[in-house]
Thioredoxin-like protein YLS8 (Arachis hypogaea), 249 residues
Amino acid sequence: MGGGHGEGTTYKGITIHQPKRWHTVAGKGLCAVMWFWVFYRAKQDGPVVVGGILGRATMIMAMVVDTSRHQLRKGEQQILKSLCLPEEEEEEEEGLRFGREVKREERMSYLLPHLHSGWAVDQAILSEEERVVVIRFGHDWDDTCMQMDEVLAAVAETIKSFAVIYLVDITEVPDFNTMYELYDPCTVMFFFRNKHIMIDLGTGNNNKINWALKDKQEFIDIVETVYRGARKGRGLVISPKDYSTKYRY
């Protein structure tokens, strides 16, 4: 019973014939191709996967250290003030002695993570596969950056499902100043899957936002536009609002 030719094994009336030689060779060949493809993809994608995990862990540790350092410095300042100034005169004396620096300290946002090296910036961009990476280049003490940081800190929680925000001091990390022409006091740029995403804002500069946005919803709309366009493989997106007349008002 059963079709085919050649020797075989019969069990309960059913004969199972031995596979032909070309069947065996073809099966082994397909198996070899499969394992070659598995190891090839592991070689190509392995460093990215492992590097992304290690990079994310390193950034988290750096952010924890940065936050702890700030809290420690703030605690030291409070202790020194309490020792040097009477409690009832503290507020008045601070205004006279420290002037504008006190206001700057209050306005600076420590809610956003800082990247302290070029390697950290690269890892932040490489490690995100599904979210837009928003980076503000500038200085924490600059008035324009402080205005922008207030907006960034306010929207960070709202856009966290599709975007992550980082701050970079261009004096501490000068690696990208020439590459991205970071000559403005404040610069905001967008990256997705290790690619710089440009946006046409109507200003003639499609590479970045080089002024402080004051409207939170406008910035959310811009990030959403960048995210949708980047997901479709676009390297240049059109801003939902034309900012060509922003200098007139």
